[in-house]
Amino acid sequence: MAKQNVAEQFVDILARAGVRRMYGVVGDSLNPVVDAVRRNAAIDWVHVRHEEVAAFAAGAEAQITGKLTACAGSCRPGNLHLINGLYDAHRSMAPVLALASHIPSSEIGLSYFQATHPERLFEECSHYSEMISSPRQMPRLLQTAIQHAIGQRGVSVVTLPGDVADQTAPDRSFESALVTSRPTIRPGDAEIDRLVRLIDEAGKVTLFCGAGTAGAHAEVMEFAGRVKSPVGHALRGKEWIQYDNPYDVGMSGLLGYGAAYEATHECELLILLGTDFPYNAFLPDDVKIAQIDVRPEVIGRRSRLDLAVWGDVRETLRCLIPRVREKTDRRFLDKMLKKHADALEGVVKAYTRKVDKHVPIHPEYVASVLDELADDDAVFTVDTGMNNVWAARYISPNGRRRIIGSFSHGSMANAMPMAIGAQFVDRDRQVVAMCGDGGFTMLMGDFLTLVQQDLPVKIVLFNNSALGMVELEMLVAGLPSYGTTDVNPDFAEVARACGAFGVRVEKPKQLAGALKDAFRHKGPALVDVVTDPNALSIPPKIKADMVTGFALSASKIVLDGGVGRMLQMARSNIRNVPRP
């Protein structure tokens, strides 16, 4: 039996680690690996048009499945294109193995044509970035990279010169067993004891939840009920914690709504659950704060803490629930629920004011209709910018839907590439990409990937011919909008020219029918909705000195424009508040 080369061994190890697809663009130094994928039935090569799309798609697949995924770029500029998508995957804690193929090993360090140093370039967006310079480093180096990506939840990058990939691999006896799943981690007894005392001593407790509450919905609800706590969330916590939540007080941050800000500032003890919420201007500095997170490196870096607890949210709450005293005073909880409902009543007016007749179409109306018509287990991928607002306020989580975006990295152009990775996981599951025209046109070439791979992704394009969030930032800072206008084609015609379903919507009465037609279509579809670029009104209290990037540091700074079905949820909760 012929011995394997390094590329074949590389692909075999990825398959053993559970990788089912490698996203990328073929070329020169990458050819030995691509050919090894071609001959390995366990892994498929997914040809995309841009390596940035490959990294976004791999990151999305990893977020949907929780398993290791892979992407690859050829030497020099090819692998450089991976970097933005890898930053996003890393900050989203998505386990991704990126292969950066390299120039011939004999030319490294000699200013060869298009030479770069990938093992250095990717250090900041990875837990591990090393180069295989000799076959003798295989398979240990690749196995180490895999363990970093899975164990620390993020990106590992392996740089591999093309000539080394073609050399004979070492004996397979060097291969070791692979860890492909994470353990649960509970805090020590001393930390649990201190946390119990803090909770028992506090009359008013608020929970603020992030993505680390995934899989812990039941425990959070039981704990909140026991300590009579309002429950707020960050954007990445929305899909895990907002549904079936009688303690919900909304979301904090720039895109926030409801009473989450008040609940976090008026309590006596704030417990941060699995969140690395970056906007410390929205966090209090005059209440006691405890933070629970499985990642010790993020604990305490956003706010002063009275107690730091290293542990998985679900396991920590399971330890706490039987030990904390059940509180009987609901006054703080009920007050926050009432404030939440009142706040939603205030902003919902813009949504209810004849938006079903407004031309150009209100984007709030588009998101609301989309929420009603999409499947109960749909995956929504969301472009950065104003689409974050529409997803945060109108897409209703239910425990089965997924909502993913570049929520930590904040990159444009992520929604369609992420939809590619999400759809490959399950071709029968509805995947909807909520795209802005600015983000969509950045990587529009990969719309052809949807057609070529026959992926039934549905793109709902919010087409306001502007970079809406950038305009908003300029206006808040007292600047005239400049350089934010797009001259766009009829995107429905573009879609049809590519061989996909395309329909353009300019009037509200056309919207529901167009979405239904797109959802019924078996292949890729694009709904080009012409939306009002002036749909958002800016609250009068916003001042330029309140702006620091995306963070606005005042409790009343919220974007007016409705909150969809969340008002119904709040009203339902208020009906359940006991009356004196």
3D structure, described in words:
Helix 3 packs parallel to helix 5, helix 3 (51-65) packs across helix 18 (415-425) and helix 14 packs antiparallel against helix 24. Strand 5, helix 7 (140-151) and strand 6 (155-161) form a beta-alpha-beta unit. A seven-stranded mixed sheet has the order 10-9-8-7-11-12-13. Strands 2-1-3-4-6-5 form a six-stranded parallel sheet, with helices on both faces. The longest helix is centred in the middle third of the chain and has 17 residues, at 331-347. The protein is an alpha/beta fold. It has 24 helices and 21 strands. The radius of gyration is 25 Å and the shape is globular.
What's the short story on this structure?
The chain is an alpha/beta fold. It contains 24 helices and 21 strands.
Whole-angstrom Rg: 25 Å
Fraction of residues in helix? 25-40%
* Structure classification: alpha/beta
Main sheet properties: 7 strands, mixed
Widest sheet: strand order?
Answer: 10-9-8-7-11-12-13
Alpha plus pi helix count: 24
Instruction: Average the pLDDT over all residues and give the rounded result.
Output: 89
Number of DSSP-assigned strands: 21
Task: Determine the N-to-C terminus distance.
Answer: 82 Å
